[in-house]
Amino acid sequence: MHNSCGVTALICATGNGRTDIVNILASRNDTRFEQKDQRGETALSIAKKKGHNEIVRCLNEYKQLREVKGTKLQEDSLGDPNGILSLILSQHEIDTKMLPNYRNRALLHVAKKGCTDILHLLLESKDIKLGMEGIDTNAALILAAREGHENTVHMLLRRINADPSFENENGESAI
């Protein structure tokens, strides 16, 4: 729905820097991200022009999420029947095609990127195998520390049995 100038609620909220409203509108399935106003601008182009970086991030994430939902990723083959974990991982540019142990490898990528919200989901997943038979928990800790992701390091230390003084084959450790 738009007025005679092509201004939608999304375009209006974006122009006014209302991240809270943009989040609500962008989450709706009927939101048309490519709708243009009379100047030919979309909500995304307006947000970029006005320097509303949080809105730019929000719009890009919702657009990506909608596109990913349309492709269904590999929900069945990933053992993620609702596709939630797959969607979240792909939204953060984490390759979900890393089968058969994609969740274990995803943990390494998430640790490196410092995505604590996704890390929490992965650590809660029953499919993550930590320790001797699964992922090298020290590797995730080293990656997070190397990238300077302090919150991720703290979360890993609280949730997994990793040794921060452990050195990998290159002599790197988390401390």
TrEMBL record:
A Pfam family reported for this protein in Swiss-Prot or TrEMBL: Ank_2
Keyword Repeat: yes
Keywords: ANK repeat, Repeat
GO molecular function: RNA binding; RNA nuclease activity
InterPro entries cross-referenced by the UniProt entry: Ankyrin_rpt, Ankyrin_rpt-contain_sf
A GO BP entry: RNA processing
Name this polypeptide is given: Similar to Ankycorbin acc. no. Q9EP71
Organism expressing this protein natively: Pyronema omphalodes (strain CBS 100304)
